[in-house]
Amino acid sequence: MFGFKKWRRKRLMKKPFPDQWDALLNRNVPYIQHLPSNLQAKLKGLVHVFIDEKKFEGCAGLEITDEIRVTIAAQASILMLGIDDLSSFYNDLRSVLVYPKPYVVKIKSRHNSFFVQEGFQRRRGEAWSRGHVVLAWNEVKKGASDIHDGQNLAFHEFAHQLDYEYGATDQVENNYNNESHFLSWARVVGSEYQKLLQAIKRDQKTLIDDYGGTNLAEFFAVITECFFEKPRELKEKHPDLYQQLQNFYQQDPASYITVS
After folding, report:
1. Using alpha carbons only, what angle is made at residue 64 by residues 61 and 65, rounded to the nearest 5 degrees?
2. Which of 48, 39, 56 is nearest to 21 (CA)?
3. Which domain holds residue 224?
4. Model-level pTM?
5. Which of 201, 223, 228, 249 is the most exposed place for a label (fewest CB within 10 A)?
């Protein structure tokens, strides 16, 4: 099963990249222009794999176009540029649902064991453990347009998907205070998360967006955005955290993404 999938993905990686897609990438995903030439070529191959394997569904009347597929696939694939084993590439992801703009969902919040309050929440995107990523198209384009602001919706939501697949934050929760299994990842990420919480309490300005203080899963998604869009600043101010993310993603964006 995995052998066939790996073979098929290798074939897709070698497919010629359409000129129209190339134009879309350069216009909508300027991040690619900062990548070394070998990573640019690899990214285009991964875009082929992503589009071939993942289903795109338009919501609220949105028609799925090549522009939507290529723009989203490229940003999802940037997170995976460090992989060499093509048997693993968003294997649990089944579909990408795309709304034209932020959407409203009905939510339930439990205040105690007897009372549940219903309400509505406006969202730009989300990732579900069942293998679906949901994105607002206008926010995807906005996030991709500025590669230095540390705000990228696609990076954020696909980081959540990787968290589901690899258990990145589960390792922190399970091992942060466990002396006998004191993993480096858990120690560093857990410590940086606590530092952010303290900084938020003190109303201190931080490089890491304070939305990361919501919970560990959001912290991982937020530091992923920062790692790819503000790598040099993250490496300077949080070197241990940068090293852990570099190990996780097997990439070193600080070597090619310059400070804005």
Report:
1. 135
2. 48
3. 167-260
4. 0.91
5. 201
What is the pLDDT at residue 181?
A: 44
Is residue 257 one of the residues assigned to a domain? yes
Mean pLDDT over residues 142-147, rounded?
Answer: 96
CATH number, domain containing residue 182: 3.40.390
